[in-house]
Write a structure and sequence with these properties.
Blueprint lengths: L16 E6 L7 H14 L3 E5 L3 H6 L5 E4 L26 H14 L3 E6 L1 H23 L5 H6 L4 E6 L15 H22 L2 E6 L6 H9 L4 E3 L7 H17 L5 E6 L12 H12 L3 E5 L11 H20 L7 E6 L2 E6 H16 L3 H7 L2 H15 L14 E7 L6 H15 L2 E5 L2 H8 L2 E3 L23 H4 L1 H11 L3 E6 L1 H12 L11 E5 L15 H21 L3 E7 L6 H10 L3 E3 L7 H17 L8 E6 L8 H11 L5 E5 L12 H20 L1 H7 L10 H7 E7 L2 E6 H8 E2 L4 E2 L5 H11 L5
Parallel strand pairs: 1-2, 1-4, 4-5, 5-10, 6-8, 6-9, 7-8, 12-13, 12-15, 15-16, 16-21, 17-19, 17-20, 18-19
Antiparallel strand pairs: 2-3, 10-11, 13-14, 21-22, 23-24
Helix pairs in contact: 1-10, 3-4, 4-11, 6-7, 7-13, 7-23, 10-20, 11-12, 13-14, 14-23, 15-17, 19-20, 20-27
This protein binds adenosine-5'-triphosphate.
The site of adenosine-5'-triphosphate (ATP) has 18 residues, from α4.
Amino acid sequence: TTTNYPSLPKAKGHEKAIAVMTSGGDAPGMNSNVRSIVRSAIFKGCQAYVVMEGYEGLVRGGPEYIKQVTWEDVRGWSTEGGTNIGTARCMAFKKREGRLLGAQHLIEAGVDALIVCGGDGSLTGADLFRSEWPSLIKELLETKRISEQQYTRYQHLNICGTVGSIDNDMSTTDATIGAYSALDRICKAIDYVEATAYSHSRAFVVEVMGRNCGWLALLAGIATSADYIFIPEKPASSEEWQDHMCNIVAKHRSKGKRTTIVIVAEGAISADLTPITPKDVHKVLVDKLGLDTRITILGHVQRGGTAVAYDRVLATLQGVEAVNAVLDSTPETPSPLIAINENKIVRKPLMDSVALTKSVADAIQAKDFDKAMSLRDTEFVEHLNNFMAINSADHNEPKLAADKRLKIAIINVGAPAGGVNSAVYSMATYCMSQGHKPYGIYNGFTGLSRHESVRSLNWKDLLGWQSRGGSELGTNRHTPEEADIGMVAYYFQKYQFDGLIIVGGFEAFVSLSQLERARDSYSAFRIPMVLIPATLSNNVPGTEYSLGSDTALNALMEYCDIVKQSASSSRGRAFIVETQGGNSGYLATLAALACGAAASYVPEEGISLEQLSQDIETLSGAFENAKGRDRFGKIILKSKNASKALTTDKLAEVITEEASGRFDAKSALPGHIQQGGLPSPIDRTRGTRFAIKAVNFIENNQDLIAEARSDDGDFDITDKQVSATASVLGVKGTNVVFTSIRHLYDVETDIAKRMPKIIHWQETRTIADHLVGRKRV
Ligand code: ATP
């Protein structure tokens, strides 16, 4: 019997009905993914369905489990943790009979395409389902469970995967939806534990999730500068790990560290595949080192709560791309998986990704750990090497020969941003592991020119920097020319620096350009110099990502969530939240996307009167329609510099007056809250990654710059040498790249506006508008 689906118009002709389900373990961000898929589908003229309770819902079928949903049904979901459409582990779907029922129920509901948000198990199931589809529908026809017409209409099932899993265990994507939220919970917990560990001078063994994948343990290890980690991909024999761990912990203690943090992934094993449990580690720390040791098992807290900004944005953009992929697909295209590589959302063949992921688990089972490692993506391997270099290295026996050791300086310029201290900590500890001598220049270029504030960085002084907010080195906005470039050169000469790392935003960018151009006059600047972008405005040319922007976005998002809750409590209220960011609308745009704001106003566009009246009309309509609904409030994001005439207060007044009683608007100013408290795990781990890449840049370009220095003191530098020796480190699309400062400054920068000429988040604005039904004039 076919089920009768009431209520909403059904797909006909060329239109598609697209269903989404969440499956496997729940992950923060799944709700954003579902919301975005539902709304994108409707926006594109399709019907949207949700399958409740994962594959269980397919097996059971009927309108209770395969539901058509409306735009309004997913309102506000971005801010909610878990998954509102339920998830389950379903044994029945692992059998053909279960999948046969699933096929029948999808056809009865009139669904053409299924988007599955889940882990590798769920996506394996999805892939199998699609490959079996022709035989399933044939059997359904032969047993008269579907009609001839249905058979013809539903010849092909479109399947698309979006990876939702806190483990980050799927190959071919850098991040899975939920992984960074889980990492956030873990790092917060370890930060708390660290304080009590410090007070009692204790050791803590912390167990985190991850059965086949050590990503959470590894990234948490970097973000909290843990002493030791256990991950399934890199096991050692029981004797080896005991000695290695004790050696490192004892060394850290002897250098004056009061705390010991050891992170154990759930799936940690030794080389003979016996599990390593927190109890095993505890015993070793107590028996061999006599440390007062406690165990903390984080458990389901790691899945908890609302998603971090990264996951909301990732899940939302991937949802949009999943719907596009479904609409693009033909019977011949292989099922896609929506992935992210660095900063770019990309499609990968689902089957290959699943197979690759499975081969990691197989390699571990076969004790082929080198293979397991080689199958993980290169970023994972890079993180692991970084962790070993900065936390486990023997600084008494550095890696490089004496003649390869350099003197490298690091300086902060501009406003503080999350991850800046992490960059300094990682640069310095990495330098120590290699044998370089790291120097900190305190209080920016004026600190140097006026007070010779150069200090050689030593290990003990840096303890705790990895997780601290602000700038431990001290920072200000002065460029070398403002500070006295001659004095800056004098001190560079005095300390014989072989390389410079500048960490900062637009002033830092200008500073690097000044130093590079001053190479003609001052030989001290004829060294490799590199900028690590760090600013919440994210306006540094040459990169799509700056340290600190994730921390700021989370701080702003949390603020908006609270304000939105307040707005929802009173009848008909919109809050206008004013964001920082200079002339860059990045923060306002991304926060609008993460919080589902009704509109955002940014300096790149200004505020036109036509658009404003259109927005007021749209909002009035929404408030009208929502009469009687509980929890209904609106947020509007406005960059401070979006308009000279319309301050945030004025804008609120204008909107309230124009809305003439239909709703009112109030302003809300988060101000310096946007610099964030403790830096987010993303900014901490990227700080580490960027810093080590920056040191490598300095190491690798020593020869090149030496070629340009002639014996008679002349400096004759080619374009190639310029670009290779004074550069901005940046994330561009799917890559981390170094771009010549001279090229960026001369070609890609609007100096007056302090902005890159090309805005990479433009498309994100369009998506944010579509997903809230904002009309553009
Ligand atoms: P997590 O990463 O959170 O563990 P997951 O998707 O890997 O998520 P699983 O429990 O492995 O979680 O899979 C979820 C569901 O997907 C299973 O309960 C089952 O219904 C379906 N599934 C998993 N593997 C298969 C398979 N090989 N064939 C058919 N269905 C499967």
